[in-house]
Amino acid sequence: MEAARRVAEALGVKNHLFLELPLRAIGGSALTADIEVPKSAGDIQSGIPVTYVPARNTIFLSFALAWAEVMGTGDIFIGVNALDYSGYPDCRPEYIEAFENMANLALKKAVEREIRVRIHTPLLRLTKKEIIRRGHSLGLDYGMTHSCYDPDASGAACGRCDSCLLRKKGFQEAGLPDPTRYCEGHM
Questions:
Q1: Nearest to 86 by CA among 57, 125, 44, 55
Q2: What is the pLDDT of residues 48-106, one digit of tens each?
Q3: In a domain, 137, yes or no
Q4: Residue 149 has what DSSP assignment?
Q5: Is residue 141 a part of any domain in this protein?
Q6: What is the mean pLDDT of the chain?
Q7: Rounded-to-integer distance, Cα 113 and Cα 128, Å
Q8: 120 - beta bridge partners?
Q9: Positive or negative torsion for Cα 45, 77, 181, 158
């Protein structure tokens, strides 16, 4: 949340809405329950990992959809990726297309043709290398961003979870320095 605040502020976002979503009450994931986040020596887990949060992107998109209608827009952006990712089912193109179709049936303003809901996924078909390069070319300060599934108390990335491994790989393949602050010994 703190990283999101810093990025929004740096980009001059006018309306940055923070909602408390008590996903811990639902559990079912290493990110929302007392389940260990898998760490490896360099191999990404195969299959849908325990870091999958049940219906996470559906929940996020549903809240974004409600706010978009109130704001009078149908444009919603989400940073899902279907190439270099951990295998989450709600990051696939067919999921996004299905949600967009549902959204246009669900909103008053869409049914009344005041807006057309479009789910924008600018990162969907990019590799991590391409994402890193795109952000770099746009002047993004990756030192302000955060990817780790299991940071330490100071916010340093663990360097061994799937998300850290994908991030490291992306910077390495892009030929750019990784500004991430990792825990001691996990650069």
A1: 44
A2: 888 889 999 999 999 999 999 999 999 999 999 988 666 889 999 999 999 999 999 99
A3: no
A4: S
A5: no
A6: 90
A7: 37
A8: 77
A9: negative
Using the structure block, give the residue that is written with the tokens 């393949």.
173
**Burial group, residue 23, by CB count within 10 angstroms (0-12, 13-18, 19+):** middle
Residue 73 lies in a domain: yes
CATH code (residue 40): 3.40.50.620
Question: Domain of 63?
Answer: 2-126
Contact 159, 187 (CB under 8 A): yes
pTM above 0.70, yes or no: yes
3-class DSSP state for residue 118? strand
Residue 83: alpha-carbon gap to chain centroid? 13
Note the pLDDT tens digit of each residue in 94-108.
999 999 999 999 999
Distance CA 143, CA 178 (A): 8
Q: Is 120 a member of any domain?
A: yes
Q: How many domains does the chain divide into?
A: 1
In the numeric block, the tokens 């746009």 are attached to 138
Q: What is the dihedral of CA 123, 129, 135, 136, to 10 degrees?
A: -170
pLDDT (average), residues 158-175:
93
* Residue 108 in tokens: 């008053």
